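Sanity check record (used in CI):
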Amino acid sequence: MSRRRLLGTAGAVGAGGLVVGGLGGASVAEAVREDPDPLSGVGSATVPFHGDHQAGIADPAQAHGHLLAFDLAPGADRKAAAALLRRWSATAAELAEGRTPKGDDTGIALDAGPSSLTVTFGFGRSFFDRTGLTDRRPAALEPLPAFTQDALDPKRGDGDLWVQIGADDALVAFHALRLLRKQAGDAVRPRWEMSGFNRTPGATPRPMTQRNLMGQVDGTNNPKPTDPDFEEKIFVPRDRKGPDAWMAGGSYAVVRRIRMLLDTWDNLPLERQERVIGRRKSDGAPLSGGGETTPVDLEKIGPDGALAIAGDAHVRVAAPSANRGATMLRRAFSYHDGFRDDGAPDAGLLFVAWQADPMKGFVPVQRKLDRGDGLSRFLRHEASGLFAVPGGCAEGEYVGQRLLEG
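Expected output for Deferrochelatase:
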């Protein structure tokens, strides 16, 4: 059975069912009949699972996401890991096409299309110890250095296997999560799981940069696939040689759970918030002038004789020009997990940064932020992980096959 959405039929059936509910239902049904296009576009969109790179890296971040890690169970070896990745890859490919995998009777997403579903797989440093593949562990997978702002919970970081799921429909994303968890069987044990969200496609009058929970436009200066050096900065070279040649076409994901001190932040006046970031809150334009995409002028002097972009402003400290060109592709989800004992929201950013080498991307930038970023006073880094994400696979193959069978 296909779970692709036939909106004409579904809309008609849904309308009939809603009319029974009375006047309120009729009003909703009319809205569904008159304005199906946004849902049609969202539901039918697909992202191919197979390819040179894994999906979920250079693709736009979806409205719903799950990040989770597993540890191999005692006794599970390289062969067991290969069998698991084979199952997972086959299932992810079917779901990405909007098909129902054989034997799936959950019914969770029967009424929805693929909704830009992506599933991405990676390996943590400990995976290579548990599978006897330490001689093929990449040097770039060395543990991240400690940062002074870290308050990390080891139970919510690292892991042997890492999975990223994204979709523009919450049930489609959960369906993928549920199936992968079921198919894991006894081969692995869950280590941690985090869920997040972004703005839904079609919620703004035109495509716009996402906002984070601080209300700030977030991602303006992200590298773009059209940039001439994008592949070089984000992906491991296709002609990679040596013990980690299996990473050709892959990337490295740094995952950080960053809690935002939202109550403290919200008490700042708007002008102070903008100085901390270095951009206007209304449209994301740099305080040095122009619009959102205008290059930041770090030398601009304001009318008061001071730097337009403060010395500790986030955009200044994080700028590639201030970090010897260090570049990473940020692809994050916001999260809210209720409230803490003190009443403050347990909310923030599930930060995922992609790069060809974390020692040339994330690490130098984070070191700079750690020392002099004004925004750091309003953030708490609570979990961290680094994962080697191999290149994509062709039809009939599975992710990680070059490592596990090479």
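Residues 78-96 form the longest helix (19 residues). If this sentence no longer matches the regenerated tokens, the check is flagged for review.
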